[in-house]
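Structure, all two chains, one model.
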Amino acid sequence: MADLSSNFLGIKSPNPFWLASAPPTDKEYNVVRAFEAGWGGVVWKTLGEDPHVVNVSGPRYATLMGPDRRVQGLNNIELITDRSLAINLEEIARVKRNWPDRAVVVSLMVPCQEESWKRILPMVEDTGADGIELNFGCPHGMSERGMGAAVGQVPEYIEMVTRWCKQYSKMPVIVKLTPNITDIRFPARAAKAGGADAVSLINTINSIMGVDLDTMIMSPSTGGKGSHGGYCGPAVKPIALNMVAEIARDPQTAGLPISGIGGISTWRDAAEYIALGCGTVQVCTAAMVYGFRIVEDMISGLSNFMDQKGYASIADFQGSAVPTVSDWRYLNLKHIDKAVINQDLCIQCGRCHVACEDTSHQAITAFKDGQRHYEVKEEECVGCNLCVSICPVPSCITMKSLKPGEVDTRTGETVTGEYQNWTTHPNNPMREVTA
Amino acid sequence: MNRPIEKPGALDLPGIAAGRLAPESCALNFTDAHPPLNPLQALLEAERCYYCYNAPCIEACPTGIDIPHFIQRIAQDNVLGAAETILDANVLGGMCARVCPTENLCEGSCVRQTNESKPVEIGLLQRFATDAYFAAPSKPIFTRAAPSGRRIAVVGAGPAGLSAAHRLAALGHDVVVFEAHSKPGGLNEYGLARYKTPDGFAQREIEWLLSIGGIEIQCGKQLGRDITLSGLVEQYDAVFLGMGLAGVNSLGIAEQQLVGLQAAVDFIAELRQAKDLSAVPVGRRVVVIGGGMTAVDAAVQAKKLGAREVTMVYRRGAEAMSASAYEQQWAQINGVTIRHWAAPREILGSDGFVTGAVFAVTRDENGKLVETGETFTLEADMVLKAIGQSFVAEPLDLSLALEKGRIATDPSGQTSHQKIWAGGDCRAGGLDLTVEAVEHGKQAAIAIDAALRA
């Protein structure tokens, strides 16, 4: 059976599933329940300076739901812990003592002053916690006070605070990044420059969940007024995966350990993050929707997947997909794919036809001999994959790659099997010309 | 739900008797056969629709309702928009949602049926949208065009006549509908199983339909008795005939005058109009002869009234029955026994009362139905005839071309008389479905309007 155990910066956990710093890790009671359910580790909900912050006593969450009320996205306006530092530290110490095999990382957020960090770090270290995560990502409330995302949006601050943490503590330092920036590589590079042992990402995305059209009040609202919240859940996964991959493949940060966060609800999501380079994954929304028991299903799925693929450990496939992430300019413009519709599986809903006809390349028929019939017109098909993406029947439409010697009937060109990308393409005025 | 207690012994009263079940039992048996979807169910079901392009369900609907659009509007929490889409194509969309054999029409062609043998519940969704609209009509869906000054007579206030009248009124014409019965609705009011349309829905729907204005209904006016076709042709600019089928087909064997031998349609009409179901008499053992929707409606309702044994007898196999497979199952799960391959040979009676029927066993020989020589007898104190209805042409005092005994028309519904159109069951070549009658009425109204404005 596959070994799911994880060693991330020397922090060991029986599996790579950690609970992210968030309401589920707010206090001992929750964390103990999580460990009992099988979670490999937790990042304790962000500690701050006393006096502790105050949360609204009204809606802190709102969701984007599918019609079956399956949660696709969740946003929140909850701040960091609203309990005193002393109580949190006491509980952290007790939990770590009672659960030595689990990872206990403590999330921190104090003002951008050296004194503040210098003061809190030894207190955290005294709990026996395995490491710290610097919350440079919280996009609401705390950012208005110059913390959270306000720090994460300024690479120089990231580097500065990270350096203080490395200076005043022996604990591994994970820097949690905000996605509310233009290029994730800059804050990641700054973290590395400051000495960070790892980055974790993504934190939540600035969001307004919606508007109540009867009252014309944004949601969620506290007594008729709302504030943007942090968005997470399955809907953000693609955004997070891209940011993870960008850091994994950036020569300046390649090899920097990554803890992946963002909409992980299934073992499959976790495996994708790992394949793009993550050493652990952090989960919040799935636990908030289903409870801690969901980890059992993630562990089961990941274990069976690894067994089926012959991966003995997480390291066996960690980062496997990173080399496949490239710049657009290096994509092979000589590679030709065509869509193929399996007529035995086709249920004749016509969605591929109308999607292609209205919004793509008019490459799918609607009729044949007066009968409904959906078939790819290869001479029009650019291989865009839209039909595959919207077909309701699994595997009904697939893409086939033309082999060398075959003719692309759209262009009349014979596939040669050679590789040519934009950098050398004749249409590119800036092309690299070989001497 | 507590099962109401049946009257001790009443089930076994011999002969035809009312009150076999306690009133509460009856009431329970005749509640909505297919309860409506609640809003969450409707949303979930709506989401199952693939929003097909050139959707097969639209092609399968005789009235051509744009089903993907109305379902999408339910999914987008816009039931008014959904109702507009439905009612614009089918003004009796509320009733059709209840009575259409959807498994043969829209749902039968749903691609989900192809994919997973579970079509989108289009009928229930249509009912959801129309029910929601009728419960709170936020604004009228139809407005009338400028008055044309034309007057059109409609004979029969059934689905075809009402549909024609409504469209004609919308197009600016004034309409007078002549109805032989004391209430409008035709088969919607008199001819459907009570559990398909409980709580007076037929009349509520008509009330809404008439709210467009410009339609006058005169009940108790029968063609050939109170009015004449030639008179209508003289007094009106055009005439639409939608009088349905007044005749009940005979069994083709000797039919004595016996208490208990009656037409299924009469039994159904009596049931529909009864104020107190426990006062409707029904046999202890009931035999229904026929294999259509009427036979099923009669048989199941007899069972629900407390008949001990109900047997439907049909001369061919299940696949030849005009009742859909779903309706056949519905009969069976309600305790009706269906006997295939048997034709009535003799109705048995004693002292003026039915005592049973003798059936000849049949089989198919190269497409031809033949009797095998074997017979069997079913004891019965009620025998209901449901082997179809026929058009009665006698009330027509003008000669109209007929085709297979019904009024011949062109595709628009125009008869051999240039001022007369016809639709619904009395028109030749149809499917005998409510939804088709509605389409006939609609198309004839459009054709009449075009002819009058030509």
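The domain at 39-135 of chain B is CATH 1.10.1060.10 (Fumarate Reductase Iron-sulfur Protein; Chain B, domain 2).
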